[in-house]
Write a structure and sequence with these properties.
19% of the residues lie in helices and 30% in strands. With 296 residues, the chain is an alpha+beta fold.
Length: 296
């Protein structure tokens, strides 16, 4: 077996050709993964994307027509089964896309071929209907059927009521922060001696008007569930309750502080403007000097 000797990134090595082949493959995976990660993103929860969509349907691409300069193409999708209807019952949709002849090699564009079957969550933007296969639950279903879990959401959505749930940092919703002056509240407790180098989390639930519902300490290792997830729609509907009692003066103080942060910016759906209930996790820690540090 032939051995090679040298350095990689300044590291001395001796290896066989077989090992070199393995290293080469790892390098290829390393550098191509940067492209994959750049195009990767978190999809919204299916129930929430359904809620924000104008139309949700299963369809099939019946036509794909390129522009004269091949820079774009237009697909026609025939509707097979409507799951959500907004104002009318269209039998087909048309969607324009950039073609392979006109895209940046580092872009995250996707391409759709004729006769593909699709499940589409369609939004209305700039007075036209659009969908994406990136950062969305829209997908190809030509060779892979809709999952049982997703199908249950699609077929039961008439029962969905967004106000039944407590949301947490969901895609498509506004950022929430305290309106209450937290610094002034913390200053009220400066005379309290708190333990140094402590850390804990307080869970707060806030109603649709931005008013505090309740605040309680996050459990640590106790097997206590602080969520009850809807078996169909995958969202939490358990309102904040007492998970455990404070274990020291530090936790007693931060719990009292949290319960005084009574006013928050309402948590709104960015598309509809509707305000809903939501949950925040407040992080408290004490420094070496016993100073209280607060994050939300």
């Amino acid at each position: 077996m032939i051995k090679l000797i040298g350095t990689v990134f300044g590291i001395y090595y001796t290896t066989t050709l077989r090992t070199m082949r393995t290293i080469f493959i790892l390098f290829i995976l390393l550098f191509t993964s940067n492209y994959v990660l750049a195009c990767d993103c978190e999809k919204p929860k299916i129930a929430l994307e359904f809620y924000n969509s104008e139309y949700v349907f299963k369809g099939k691409v019946t036509q794909k027509v390129y522009s004269d300069d091949l820079s774009s193409y237009l697909i026609t999708v025939k509707v097979i089964n409507h799951y959500k209807i907004k104002d009318s019952l269209p039998k087909e949709f048309q969607f324009p896309f950039r073609s392979k002849h006109n895209y940046n090699k580092n872009s995250c564009d996707f391409f759709i071929d004729k006769y593909e079957s699709l499940l589409l969550y369609v939004k209305k933007e700039d007075n036209s209907y659009k969908f994406s296969l990136m950062c969305s639950n829209s997908k190809r279903i030509t060779n892979k059927p809709i999952s049982t879990k997703e199908l249950a959401i699609l077929e039961n959505f008439k029962k969905f009521n967004l106000n039944n749930y407590i949301l947490e940092k969901e895609k498509g919703f506004s950022y929430s922060k305290p309106i209450t002056n937290v610094d002034s509240i913390i200053s009220m407790f400066k005379k309290n001696k708190i333990e140094k180098k402590q850390f804990s989390i307080v869970i707060v639930d806030i109603d649709e008007k931005g008013k505090l519902i309740n605040a309680n300490l996050h459990y640590k290792l106790e097997p206590i569930k602080y969520k009850i997830i809807d078996s169909i729609f995958g969202l939490n509907y358990l309102i904040n309750k007492q998970y455990r009692k404070p274990e020291n003066n530090f936790e007693s103080v931060i719990l009292k502080i949290s319960k005084k942060i009574t006013d928050w910016l309402p948590y709104r759906n960015l598309k509809t403007g509707e305000a809903v209930r939501h949950r925040k996790y407040l992080k408290f820690q004490s420094s070496m000097k016993g100073e209280l540090i607060f994050e939300y």
